[in-house]
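re: ur question from earlier - yeah i can do the single chain one, its not a big deal. heres the input i used so u can compare w yours
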Amino acid sequence: MRIAVVGVGGVGGYFGGQLARAGEDVALIARGAHLAAIQAQGLRVESIAGDFTAHPMIATDDPAEVGPVDAVLVAVKSWQLAAAAAALRPLLGPETAVVPLLNGVEAPEQLAVALGRTHILGGLCRISAAIVAPGVIRHTAVEPTVILGELDNQPSVRATALHVAFTRAGVTAVIADDIQRAMWEKFLLITTWGIGAVTRVPIGAWRSIPETRALAEAAMREVVAVALAHGVALSEDLVAQTLAVFDSLPAETTASMQRDIMAGRPSELEAQNGAVVRLARAVRVPAPTHRFLYASLLPQERQARRGLG
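and the output i got, formated as tokens:
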């Protein structure tokens, strides 16, 4: 397959690197020093599952140099999505599939508005990875997994082709029975991690304290209620299952939004806790825990965004 990866951070770098390593025709859309390093020496991935260097067919900051592809993996930060959607138009052919691997549940609809619904699949991934130096991605926790599916949950040739490509690359891939439910299940997990951003400690600290563990449970139950009001029926066991996931992670693990906030960078706050607040308000479901997390983090988020100007 011809596959373009837009956004070559921890997510796009790891999955794009694995696809390129497996022989897929991969184009990496990156920028700055990170792009220059990839062009000079390939993309280095340091992983708990084994290190490797990938050499994509092309690495560029200009999608027009790539042209139409079979699939686009969108792995930018959520606050970069609008600009990325406008820029990726040269990658689209009549049958091109666009798969967002962003945190949150709103990206498919945002991409559908910008690019047309026929191009868009739902998608999510599981991995803990980040850029640690130009041209270098480090995968530190979580079995890398991609879950995707058509927005109407119907089988399709393009979803199957992507599933085959990921599997051939050694990546665990799943075509979801219900992609909306799968996205909300991850949404519940990542939005709860706003607790890490507020407390500024790794997961091992906040999951082990009864007060913050109770806060996590309350946050998850709010997302279950909001999802149900939006027509997405999450499992009654999901809160316990997610707590078990938290308990299984290395004690030093942090989330990407937490790392951005602690570094004073713009974060995905609006797409995570902010989105819970908005989606709850739209269906008149109380979400006091997420309102607290969002309000607590908003001043620093706005300060970081002022720095963009």
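The chain has 13 helices and ten strands. not sure if urs matches, ping me
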